[in-house]
Automatic annotation (TrEMBL):
The protein's name in its UniProt record: ATP-dependent DNA helicase
Protein family: Belongs to the helicase family. RecQ subfamily.
Taxonomic source organism: Strongyloides papillosus
EC assignment: 5.6.2.4
Reaction catalyzed: ATP + H2O = ADP + phosphate + H(+); Couples ATP hydrolysis with the unwinding of duplex DNA by translocating in the 3'-5' direction
Helicase C-terminal domain segment(s): 327-490
Domain Helicase ATP-binding: 109-283
Lineage, broadest ranks: Eukaryota, Metazoa, Ecdysozoa, Nematoda, Chromadorea
A single cellular component GO annotation: nucleus
Length: 610
């Protein structure tokens, strides 16, 4: 009689999750019960049509996984110190020559030691997952990872198994046979699975908690990992109530160390995470949220129209129909052209994401991009599952260049070469924006993050804000809890608004939001800093203006000057004097210098990245 059978007999209890009852029946059948004719019973396989991606991969690479198991079970490996083990697994199994940075290396070695809880806050794409995946292979036993989404779990398991690492999901999508096979392995004396991914909801079932308790009793539960840990906090941008109950598992798992990981935690959220998880003097590993390969800018529809009007007046260009959509087409094509120029014959396509606030916007924008020769597709909740998979796979292979999606898309997507992320309207808060925009440039190459705003998008943002406030008001939370949530919504909305409107380095505002108050302006990686840089160069006389020919009109003369200045200002040289903002510029007086007395021309040309 195995451990599971013993427990069922002694406790006389039925697990809370209905499918776990079927798991028990399957285990009993597989453990030796026979039919009347003496043959073994074959359990009926319900939900056999479910596509178990993790199992397909596991069976395909079973022999290779045995080889990985052999490497990390050898006497040679056990004789290594913690640093040597970390480097061995990094190179031999994960295929990396070096750690991303010192913080990642120290976090991993600290996790291998298993002498404290660990808090990790690294930017998107900075290697957070390796901080638990690598230590999980450095000693016998199982690491359990709590993750918010089933789709995210499936992707992570598949990635690990392709690296020949035995991992599996535990959630409602599994068939009864699959659940029984996993359970039997985890209840065995030496489980093969190294990493098990589950949701906080599944972790609350009696059956799963029994498995954790058994692993703890046998000394085989190595770590409990909370991925996307900001979901614990009501001050976070993606609060999930079930996450806040994870700390109850401490009563089952004793002194097993916990690892919390996030990319989007302010100081308040960080404190909340540690409090909820009952961290006592944890080791902290944090790196700056600043990513120097991302260029941030904000473009308003009003400014696009003002610029178009100015260009029409000065240069005769007729672009009365300028819209956010038309500018987006230019923006995307400009990025594509740069990639072609930079990569030449090695250009293999590009990937981008445009986030929309509604399903209709996704559909309409995708159609608009396609009509302008940009390979695009919509991705949203109303698509059939097969269609979602098809769109995502084509995008991953660069057969589709742009996905127009609602915010549900992107979490867990392992695509390193996303070259741009565009938001059609500002997100609800800066934490969400940082996470979503951070899906660009995970390979470290130059990428672009833009927000388009208009009167319509601003009104829609206010609508969602008021909708969230109404939900809080109608909730069953205490008045104190309601007040905290309402204050949080007002605060995060205001910070998002400031990001879009303030004349301040965009990177610095993001860093400040996450508690990095000493961050200096980026200098060259946002529209505001580039504009300020050009202003200083103009003021210092580094940019000369060519003398216009005598037959140039006032308008042409002014246009030539205006093109050299990428900030809002009033050009009045044609009235017989120089605007003080232009003092120090080394350009001679034009022949038309005083012909415009009594006239005034306003030029506005906001800088866009060069």
């Amino acid at each position: 009689m195995n451990n599971l059978d013993n427990w069922l007999v002694k406790s006389n209890r039925i697990p809370q999750e209905p499918r776990d009852v079927e798991v028990i029946k399957v285990i009993e059948t597989n453990s030796g019960k026979t039919s009347k004719n003496g043959s073994k019973k074959t359990p009926k396989r319900k939900n056999a049509t479910v596509n178990n991606k993790y199992k397909d991969v596991a069976e395909k690479y079973d022999k290779e996984m045995d080889e990985v198991d052999r490497l990390i079970s050898s006497e040679e490996f056990f004789d290594m110190n913690d640093k040597e083990k970390a480097e061995f697994v990094l190179q031999k199994i994960f295929g990396h020559k070096n750690f991303r940075n010192k913080d990642q290396e120290e976090a991993i070695i600290s996790a291998i030691k298993r002498d404290s809880d660990i808090y990790v806050s690294f930017p998107t794409g900075a290697g957070k997952s390796l901080c638990y995946q690598l230590p999980a292979l450095c000693r016998p036993g199982v690491t359990i990872v709590f993750s918010p989404l089933i789709a995210l779990i499936q992707d992570q398991v598949t990635v690990l198994q392709k690296k020949m690492i035995r991992s599996c999901p535990w959630n409602s999508t599994l068939t009864q046979n699959d659940r029984s096979e996993i359970a039997k392995d985890l209840f065995s004396a030496s489980p093969k699975y190294r990493i098990v991914y589950t949701t906080p909801e599944s972790a609350q079932t009696e059956f799963f908690q029994k498995m954790m308790k058994e692993l703890t009793r046998k000394g085989l539960l190595n770590y409990l990992v909370v991925d996307e840990a900001h979901c614990i906090s009501e001050w976070g941008h993606d609060f999930r109530p079930k996450y806040s109950r994870l700390s109850t598992l401490r009563g089952i798992t004793g002194n097993v160390p916990w690892i919390a990981l996030t990319a989007t935690a302010s100081n308040v959220v960080e404190t909340d995470i540690k409090t909820h998880l009952r961290f006592d003097n944890p080791k902290n590993y944090k790196t700056s949220v600043y990513r120097d390969n991302l260029y941030y800018d904000v473009v308003s529809e009003g400014q696009l129209k003002r610029d178009a009007s100015t260009n029409k007046s000065i240069e005769g260009e007729n672009d009365d129909n300028v819209t956010i959509e038309s500018d987006m087409v230019k923006h995307i094509k400009k990025i594509k052209q740069r990639l072609i120029e930079e990569n030449g014959g090695d250009f293999k396509g590009y990937g981008g994401i445009v986030y929309c606030r509604s399903i209709d916007s996704c559909e309409q924008l995708a159609a608009h991009l396609v009509s302008n020769d940009i390979l695009a597709a919509a991705y949203h909740s109303k698509l059939k599952k097969a269609d979602k998979i098809d769109v995502q796979q084509k995008w991953m292979k660069n057969e589709i260049s742009v996905i127009c999606a609602t915010i549900a898309f992107g979490m867990g997507i392992d695509k390193a070469d996303v070259r741009f992320v565009i938001h059609l309207g500002a997100p609800d808060n800066l934490a969400a924006y940082y996470q979503e925009s951070g899906r660009a440039g995970r390979d470290g190459k130059k990428s672009y993050c833009r927000i388009y705003i208009s009167d319509d998008t601003i009104e829609r943002s206010k609508y969602f804000k008021n909708l969230n406030l109404r939900k809080i008001m109608l909730s069953k939370a205490s008045e104190e809890q309601k007040k905290i949530k309402e204050d949080n919504i007002h605060y995060t909305f205001r910070k998002m608004q400031e990001y879009c409107e303030n004349d301040e380095c965009r990177h610095k505002m993001l860093c400040n939001y996450f508690g990095e108050n000493e961050k200096a302006p980026c200098g060259i990686n946002c529209d505001v800093c580039v504009r300020h840089k050009n202003e200083k160069e103009n003021m210092s006389g580094k940019r000369g203006i060519k003398r216009p020919s005598s037959d140039k009109s006032i308008l042409e003369h002014t246009a030539e000057i205006a093109k050299r200045f990428h900030y809002s200002q009033e050009i009045t040289s044609n009235r017989g004097f120089i605007n003080p903002m232009l003092m120090g510029q080394r350009f001679p007086k034009a022949s038309s210098f005083t012909t415009g007395t009594g006239k005034e021309l306003h030029i506005r040309n906001n800088y866009q990245y060069h």
